[in-house]
Amino acid sequence: MDRRPEDLYLELLKKTLSFSLWPEPPTPVKDFHFRKKTSKRFFLSILSGILDKTRYQIVRRRDFSEEDRADGRVWPGYADTMVGMKRLDNLQHCIETVIRDGVDGDLIETGVWRGGACIFMRAVLAVHGVKDRKVFVADSFEGLPKPDAGKWPADRGDTQHERPFLAVSREDVEKNFKRYGLLDENVVFLKGWFKDTLPAAPIKKLSVLRLDGDMYGSTMDALANLYPKLSKGGYCIIDDYALETCREAVDDYRQQQGITEKMERIDWTGYYWKKQ
Ligand SMILES: C[S@@+](CC[C@H](N)C(=O)[O-])C[C@H]1O[C@@H](n2cnc3c(N)ncnc32)[C@H](O)[C@@H]1O
What is the value of pTM for the model shown? Predict the structure, then answer.
């Protein structure tokens, strides 16, 4: 074994953040019952409520294949990130390349959920002894917004704002950073809707811009406010290109701005390009 301790640490961290080391434990049904029909949902929430008082829970088995987890195809019950190993590998590649090539700028993820990908960003900077770059952690910390179909017709009918599973509080994300010993002054939280926080964000330059807000409006708000701040040689990473809403926003923005850099595929939904 001739791998450096730093590489072993980052490898272990990716597996821990994505919960890839363990089989998925059964998940309380109340965390997922929004997917059920109304009568089932009602029945399950009553039963869960009663059982909770007796310290028992109704749980559901969720057997993920290793491939599903590597591809980030599942909404995990326990992981700190849902992006999967391939997209974490890509994130590491982008951060290490900008450090190596001296590309100026901070790092940001727009849409962080439990914070796992941002925790990993902070860890990569720490491993390389980088002290002059910040990690911006941008989220409502209340889940996705209701669609604004007047402004962004592509988001009409989007129901993701109804999913409490996607709403993780800032306090919980801070706790997650602390659990890994990675919360410090170089981690900056931007709490609120992207349309409000990003235009005034205290960011001069970015070297890695990671977008994971799913919707057309969320993707467009992030691109419009942040892409101009991305340094040449920096990376723009799109987590949700498989979603029609996100794909349309990315394609529209690239076309409007005349961006011709080739998009490289990471996995079934992740794409990225290097700004030339
Ligand atoms: C799919 S999750 C992000 C997953 C995360 N990157 C990870 O590593 O697991 C989408 C996140 O985007 C946030 N979000 C989406 N649109 C937003 C908006 N317009 N303003 C603020 N937060 C938004 C949601 O609150 C949610 O936390």
Answer: 0.95
